[in-house]
Write the structure tokens for this entry.
Amino acid sequence: MTIGSPSGGALPLLQASDRIPQQPGPLMDYVLTPYTPLAELDGQLHSMSVFFYFMRKHGMVDSMKPILTALYRHLGPNKMVWGIKTSDGKPCIELYFYNHCRNAPGNPMAISTLVPVLAPFINVASVCDESQPYIMCSLELCPERLHRKESEGFRLYLAGEHNRDGYDGVSYLVTRDDQIRENEYCFFYAFDDPFLQRLIGESPVVSANRERLFPASFVDCHSICFSKKRGSVALYFSRVSPAAMEQFVQQGFAPDLGEMVAAEQALLNHLRWDIGYDVSVDNGASESGVTIRKAGLYGYL
């Protein structure tokens, strides 16, 4: 099977160089915690194969390879999470670096350490107070910013206490001069959790589209994250099944991946997946009154 390239030629669905074999060892979810594979690993594809397919389709591989190589040399394998996203119709990727040590001194994933690692390839204008015990930082990149060799900055994530703060985590965009608060996150391990149900009920756009936004195959997962953003709500589902991931793709949340995922399903069925999407009111543009502004699929490196 082939797909049309932007120039009108034909590209194989998954090029040989992007067929990254799954190695023995733990499989990781999007918070870098291990889970049990759903099938034997021998002969299967690593989730990185999907990541490289997306980057190649959107002309990002040549720019990203030296960045990823530098980060691999700095951190080693199984230390990063990737996200591939469609945001307002445009492709982007995000790399996530978990500070489970809460950014203790010498942490190789500190923003102040990552910025110089990336400096030969991309300018990241982030200056951060490294005394903050942040639990994660991330860097979003799109084709245009990669071409200009610049980024808007890292995001950092601080832990909260559910009962005290009303959230489990909060994120900030870190620029050269400021930290801009963006999102609050709450994690749940059961769909019928009373606090999750309260959050759903408090959001008119989510409660009015409950069945569409919480299909049974997505809810049958390890955890659900409800995130409050400026002007939207984001929903994330961790460790969904291969069938749920394909449903996510085929329903149009990640249309770039449809043919490839269908073609390679047998070599990806050992994996669980992490998925998410942002929803907002569309002011009558659709019958449901809701717009999926951003959708993402996550794996690990």
